[in-house]
Amino acid sequence: MSECMNFTEGEFYQEHFDSRAYAKNFYSCSRGHSDEDFLTFVLRCLSRVFSTGEHRGQRLIDVGSGPSIYSVLSACEYYDEIVLSDFADNNRRELEKWLKNQEDCLDWKPILQCVCELEGKRPSDLEASLKHRVKNVLKCDVRLENPFYPHTLEPADCVITSLCLEAACKDIQTYRRALHGLTKLLRPDGLLVMVGALGETFYKVDERPFSCLKLNQYDVEEALRGLGLSIHEFNILPGDDQRNKSVSDFEAVFHLVARKPSD
Ligand SMILES: C[S@@+](CC[C@H](N)C(=O)[O-])C[C@H]1O[C@@H](n2cnc3c(N)ncnc32)[C@H](O)[C@@H]1O
């Protein structure tokens, strides 16, 4: 990608992000960040964290959901109220369409099926359970001190975010501030679950490039420790060196679980 290109922040997503093309490119189970590896890795990690039922509570917030729901599938049955969110109107519209079973909504059945195979559940039950528990789809901006301004959300037991912060934050200071904002959404002792890309500077949706903040494991860990979070798991899936890097130049994907300190 051209080094002259400005970092594509939220406003660029609002104008140019094609939610349906994104879902098709990355989550149709036949293409993706790294064929099926990315998705399989992430779904397995999320399933391992949540399917024991060890983590549960009243409220779960997914920050920067895009048009997608995979990030909350394993967790959803353990939280009574779920908030999905994104900066871009189009993404929130696609989520609403799916929640309301509208005719031309995105098809998440293959991904529901994958999660259900891992967890021995029925896709129709899991889908109904998630739809029942999602209470809101809200606009958020992770660059704000309160990402949900002007709303103040009740403290969450769990915050999940997947592939959002490195796409939304143009530099490491903004990334650290955004993580601080996410941490403030959590109750003391609350759980932060993150999925992200390492070493990535761009990805493309169809032919349109979007910027990413190039991060390494140390950057992420330092940002979390700087906020006083304890890191419980940090899992990494290295990218396949042989893959075509014209769609995205990520070096690895990570999944982590961290906990906010108790007061
Ligand atoms: C790569 S997509 C990830 C979407 C989804 N979480 C996933 O895992 O597929 C990045 C998302 O970040 C959102 N985003 C960009 N800037 C943002 C901001 N300032 N605040 C919140 N979300 C933002 C975009 O609209 C987009 O949905």
Automatic annotation (TrEMBL):
Amino acids binding S-adenosyl-L-methionine: 22, 27, 64-65, 70, 86, 91, 141-142
Keywords for this protein: Methyltransferase, S-adenosyl-L-methionine, Transferase
Any GO BP annotation: methylation
InterPro entries given in the database record: NNMT_TEMT_trans (IPR000940), SAM-dependent_MTases_sf (IPR029063)
Keyword Lipid biosynthesis: no
Family (UniProt): Belongs to the class I-like SAM-binding methyltransferase superfamily. NNMT/PNMT/TEMT family.
Protein name: Nicotinamide N-methyltransferase-like
